[in-house]
């Protein structure tokens, strides 16, 4: 087979086409599970069908929380406020009390403070981590101070996807409101001066089970059939308010990438499945999580990689060098960013966000937001613009030239995943990243736990993957066999890196360390030698070593099979 790849159709990206679609998308407020959301999704369904894709809308049960009216009173005087998705509704007459200031809501900020039954006053946007700490500390309410004059809608549940019988206990149990910086700062300053301002939280929240839609648009590759591998391209469709940048612009970009790739479908090596999720904003990724659970076996067998996009083409979004990707896909992100900008790619680790519901299955992923603002407030959740998650996210916040640039990056990575004879997964880089994590542990645990089997295993995976990368398939059958083997390696390595090791559960929407399966070994390294704490930690650490060693053995066998296919 030739090593030359077909040219990606990036130059054909059409700003007018995307903006025409975006103007239609911008007509609707798309709250999860509402009639308006479904009506807007029907427009996307028609456009994807026009572009040549088979389409269907799946309806499923989702646990959705839609914030309603909110009011905060300070000593009887009302100030502007919003409540948050998955807040508890306030009791009749509101929740009142003198708040307890807990800074930014870190563990250290909560330590030593008696907040049971109280309202906590917190700096910054409402987050799942702070809500979890407040709930665990027994707080009755949270009042968040925005870092500026705008107040941002947020989903505060740490439970990924629909809560289950086993995870519903982790849902927030506090009344949560947010106010702007000036009003919240006045409460903070009054407390600091020794005052006792009485704050009353009024919050209405509509939380419960409802049917939500997922649009699935699909096109087969050259072989077709029930077992043909496919690339998953996804983004959420539901919004806060009109949500034209977040996430209308990404939906328009997805449609454009799909349209252009379909036009050169004869050069595909595998199929393309495009999913538009509901429940991202109001259900903690309930749509993508349900889809992962309901289609687990098929995704495990067939899905090559996941490309997710969010908030493309924002006004002033000039920085693309930080675009996220899992290690095995960073080279694709780097090539695309550097091809369409004058920026050097730095990259960053995929966060526990952006509908990353497929990490347990072991599907490598990339992107999320592609471009961001050059300046970011230290308390802002991201650098997507001051209008993010506010009523101001309208069509004037999307720059057509930036949208074209971002869509070209998106189209290039999707094209590479579709058109490469052997799926372009760089497992050597993944293994090297693991070796970097293991080096300080080997030193810290010298004589306490032998991690050399992991170093040996990771080295073997790295070297085998490097050998695979140097070979070219002799024919399409060899390419398909090598690709299948590389997918099997992903199924071993991605869960070891991005979960606690369980392929069938969804880790919470909370920060996770790199190679989370190593955490028990890190915990052992933090104990004092000879202590009881060390002995307890050693039990978990030994099991963690076994888990990672098994993943490396599985990956190495898969890579050996890839080498055999390419010999």
Describe it for me?
- This protein is 39% helix and 17% strand.
- The model has no long low-confidence stretch (mean pLDDT 97).
- Strands 1, 2, 4, 9, 10, 11, 12 and 14 form an eight-stranded mixed sheet that branches. Strands 3-8-7-6-5 form a five-stranded mixed sheet, covered by helices on one side.
- It is globular and about 75 Å long.
- It has 567 residues and is of the alpha/beta class.
- Helix 9 packs across helix 10 (400-419).
- It has helices spanning 15-25, 35-50, 107-110, 128-136, 181-192, 244-263, 286-294, 296-302, 330-340, 400-419, 427-444, 452-469, 476-498, 519-525, 532-566, and strands spanning 54-74, 77-79, 82-83, 95-97, 100-101, 119-123, 141-145, 175-179, 199-219, 230-236, 271-277, 303-309, 317-319, 365-368, 372-373.
- It has 15 helices and 15 strands.
- Helix 3 (107-110) links the parallel strand 5 and strand 6.
What average pLDDT do the residues reach? 97
Q: Specify the number of helices.
A: 15
Shape: globular
The structural class is alpha/beta
Q: How many E strands?
A: 15
H/E topology pattern: HHEEEEEHEHEEHEEHEHHEEHEEHHHHHH
What Rg do the Cα atoms give?
Answer: 24 Å
Summarize the biggest pleated sheet.
Answer: 8 strands, mixed
Unreliable sequence segments: none
Ends apart, CA distance between termini: 13 Å
Helical proportion?
Answer: 25-40%
Work out the strand percent.
15-25%
């Amino acid at each position: 087979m030739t090593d030359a790849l077909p040219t990606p159709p990036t130059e054909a990206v059409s700003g007018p086409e995307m903006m025409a679609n975006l103007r239609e998308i911008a007509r609707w407020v798309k709250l999860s599970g509402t009639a308006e959301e479904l009506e807007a999704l029907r427009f996307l369904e028609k456009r994807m069908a026009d572009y040549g894709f088979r389409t269907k809308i799946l309806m499923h049960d989702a646990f959705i929380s839609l914030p309603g009216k909110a009011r905060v009173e300070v000593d009887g005087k009302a100030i502007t406020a919003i409540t948050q998705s998955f807040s508890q509704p306030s009791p009749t007459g509101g929740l009142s009390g003198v708040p307890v200031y807990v800074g930014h809501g870190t563990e250290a900020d909560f330590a030593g403070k008696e907040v049971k039954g109280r309202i906590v006053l917190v700096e910054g946007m409402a987050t799942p981590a702070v809500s979890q700490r407040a709930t665990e500390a027994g707080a009755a309410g949270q009042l968040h101070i925005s870092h500026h004059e705008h107040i941002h809608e947020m989903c505060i549940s740490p439970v990924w996807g629909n809560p289950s019988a086993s995870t519903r206990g982790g849902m927030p149990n506090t009344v949560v409101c947010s106010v702007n910086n000036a009003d919240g700062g006045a409460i903070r300053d009054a407390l600091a001066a020794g005052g006792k301002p009485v704050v009353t939280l009024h919050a209405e929240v509509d939380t419960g089970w409802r049917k939500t839609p997922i649009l699935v648009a699909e096109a087969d590759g050259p072989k077709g059939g029930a077992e043909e591998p496919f690339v998953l391209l996804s983004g959420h469709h539901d919004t806060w308010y009109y949500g034209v940048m977040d996430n209308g612009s990404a939906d328009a970009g997805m449609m454009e990438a799909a349209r252009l790739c379909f036009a050169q479908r004869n050069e595909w090596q595998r199929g393309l499945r495009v999913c538009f999720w509901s429940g991202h904003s109001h259900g903690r990724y309930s749509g993508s999580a349900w889809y992962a659970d309901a289609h687990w076996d098929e995704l495990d067998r067939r899905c090559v990689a996941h490309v997710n996009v969010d908030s493309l083409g924002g006004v002033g979004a000039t920085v693309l060098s930080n675009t996220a990707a899992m290690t095995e896909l960073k080279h694709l992100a780097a090539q695309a960013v550097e091809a369409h900008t004058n920026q050097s790619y730095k990259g960053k680790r995929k966060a526990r966000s952006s509908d990353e519901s497929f990490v347990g299955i072991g599907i490598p992923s990339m992107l999320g937001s592609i471009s961001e603002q050059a300046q970011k407030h230290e308390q802002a959740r991201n650098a997507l613009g001051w209008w993010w998650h506010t009523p101001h996210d309208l069509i004037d916040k999307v720059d057509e030239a930036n949208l074209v640039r971002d869509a070209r990056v998106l189209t290039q990575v999707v094209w590479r995943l579709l058109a490469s004879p052997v799926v372009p997964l760089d497992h050597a880089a993944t293994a090297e990243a693991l070796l970097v994590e293991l080096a300080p542990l080997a030193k810290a645990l010298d004589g306490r736990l032998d991690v050399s089997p992991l170093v040996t295993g990771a080295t073997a995976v790295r070297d085998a993957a490097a050998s695979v990368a140097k070979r070219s398939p002799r024919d399409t059958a060899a390419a398909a066999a090598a690709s299948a083997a590389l997918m099997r390696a992903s199924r071993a390595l991605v869960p070891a890196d991005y979960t606690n090791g369980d392929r069938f559960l969804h880790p919470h929407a909370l920060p996770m360390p790199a190679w989370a399966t190593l955490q028990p070994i890190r915990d052992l390294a933090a104990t004092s030698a000879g202590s009881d704490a060390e002995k307890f930690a050693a039990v978990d650490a030994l099991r963690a070593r076994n888990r990672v060693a098994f993943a490396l053995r599985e990956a190495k066998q898969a890579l050996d099979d890839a080498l055999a296919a390419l010999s």
